[in-house]
Amino acid sequence: MNPILRGLKATYNFFAGDAILLVATAVAFVIGLLLVHALKAPNPLVAIIFVGCVVGGLALTLGRELRGRERQQ
Amino acid sequence: MMGAQWAVLVAAFLASAVEFVEAFTIVLVVGITINWRSALAGTAAAVLALVVLVGVFGTALVRYVPLDALRFVVGILLVLFGLKWLKKAILRYAGLKAMHDEEAIYEEQMAEMRARGEHHQHRVDPFGVATSFKSVLLEGLEVAFIVITFGSAANSISSAIWGALAACVLVVLVGALVRAPLQRVPENTLKFVVGIMLTSFGTFWGGEGVGISWWREDLFLPILVIFYLVVTGLLILWLRPYATPKSASLDAPGQSAEEALS
């Protein structure tokens, strides 16, 4: 594998190692920024959506693990 | 912000304890199979590299990056890191992933060393130095990352360093006394607690960076901690019925050392 790709893969594995967690975290922050600065959404709504994205990412990745293991068995 | 300083110290201590216990197993294998001079030389070099890393990046971040911007970026990284640790801990608690077994890793590493024809010798052995250096550096990188990000965002990098150093001294002392893999350390519980702390602080600081004003400001942090504890508890309850002895052994002793160390 190309050294640059290897470096990128190692960085990804170090910080996230899981595409769902990475996407969920990115979505939480992007949506949070949009809601606060572009849509001027109420603070409690932004907080709930922000935390919901984080928790949703965790639940999704665990669900994927479960499905993967069920397929293996 | 005394509370935040203590939280940083405790998080750094617990995270470091987990990682140093894992690194200690490899250092022990090198010490017993080759010699302690090689094992300790590699360890000392890795610790020095980590101290330089924390010193350079930690100081630069605190001095040159505005706290608000720092907390936004650190928030993202801490959420990612915290979720990564939480995922592993939840899978282990639910019985879907084998518990970290230091004894099994120790045996596997010993077998690998013997297969390579490594034997006890008096001179410093480059392979032994490199092996212990690599294991301490790889495990320590996660600790360094937590110390730098957590410490700088809480404006208390010294608390994080003291927490990590205390864990290092404790593991070395206990390891020197026991001279065996430290199996009784509740690694999964420590990883779970650290995962909760990193995710909670990451959400809090990241949220502030996004522009959220948390209800009751700093007092909202314990609420976030309790919330994540409840959510992860529910996730464990959801997954537990799916655990079978087969799934728990999927990555048991036969797993590669690299995977086992993660």
Structure description:
The complex is a heterodimer of chains A (73) and B (262). With 73 residues, chain A is mostly helical. Chain A is built from three helices and no strands. Chain A has helices at residues 3-15, 19-38, 43-72. The two termini of chain A are 32 Å apart. Chain B has 262 residues and is mainly α. Chain B has one domain (3-261). Helices cover 79% and strands 0% of the residues of chain B. Chain B has ten helices and no strands. The two termini of chain B are 33 Å apart. The interface between A and B is large, with 34 and 39 residues.
Question: Short summary of the structure?
Answer:
The complex is a heterodimer of chains A (73) and B (262). With 73 residues, chain A is mostly helical.
List the helices and strands and how they pair.
The complex is a heterodimer of chains A (73) and B (262).
Chain A: H1 3-15, H2 19-38, H3 43-72
Helix pairs in contact in A: 2-3
Chain B: H1 2-33, H2 36-64, H3 67-94, H4 102-115, H5 126-153, H6 157-178, H7 187-210, H8 220-239, H9 245-248, H10 257-261
Helix pairs in contact in B: 1-2, 1-4, 1-5, 1-6, 1-7, 2-5, 3-5, 3-7, 3-8, 5-6, 7-8
